[in-house]
Specification:
This protein is α+β, with helices and mostly antiparallel strands. Helix content is about 45%, strand content about 10%. The protein folds into 2 domains: about 5-55; about 70-145, Glutaredoxin (3-Layer(aba) Sandwich). The chain has helices at about 5-10, 15-30, 35-45, 50-55, 75-80, 85-95, 140-145; strands spanning about 70-75, 110-115, 125, 130. The chain has a 4-stranded mixed β-sheet with strand order 2-1-3-4, with helices on one face. A hairpin with a 2-residue loop joins strand 3 and strand 4. Helix 2 runs antiparallel to helix 3 (about 35-45) and helix 3 (about 35-45) crosses helix 4. The structure holds FE2/S2 (inorganic) cluster. The site of FE2/S2 (inorganic) cluster (FES) has 10 residues, from helix 5.
């Protein structure tokens, strides 16, 4: 795993560098650790509060630890009508967590997302950004079993 200090330093002096740096840190760690926010504040000449503000402004950035597998359920209207609610309940039940939470073993995070552009196959989930179409509640155990 690349060091967050090195990652952030590599964006020093780049326009929009702090956002790019946060993206890169999140790609590596799946979230932005508090120490990385402090580091970014120093590198980009911001107060820690400002650096934290940037990290929490964008919904695709997270300052909370997240699982190795980030499962997102599309909640836009076409997926909603196609039964997204049942699927999300099946994931909550199988994982023992609610939307927005991460399992205690750090393996799974459950989140909601807007339309991911796969509306021909509703309802749609993504696992680490990879879309899965036509998901039913019955398929949830098998889908989880594939995540080693
Ligand atoms: S509405 Fe769910 S993928 Fe488009």
């Amino acid at each position: 795993m690349a060091d967050y200090q090195e990652i952030i330093a590599s964006y020093r002096g780049t326009p929009g560098g702090i956002i790019e740096a946060y993206h890169a840190v999140q790609r590596e760690y799946n979230y932005i650790p508090a120490e990385a926010v402090k580091e970014a504040a120093g590198v980009f000449g911001l107060s820690e509060a400002q650096a934290y503000g940037v990290a929490t402004f964008y919904s695709y950035l997270s300052v909370e630890p997240r699982g190795r597998y980030i499962i997102r359920m599309c909640e836009s209207a076409p997926c909603h009508i196609a039964g997204a609610e049942e699927v999300i309940q099946a994931f909550e039940h199988a994982l023992g967590i609610k939307v927005g939470e991460t399992t205690a073993d750090g393996k799974f995070t459950l989140e909601l997302t807007e339309c991911v552009g796969q509306c021909q196959g509703t309802p749609v989930i993504t696992i680490n950004s990879q879309p899965y179409a036509g998901v039913s509640a019955e398929q949830v155990p098998a889908i989880l079993a594939q995540c080693k």
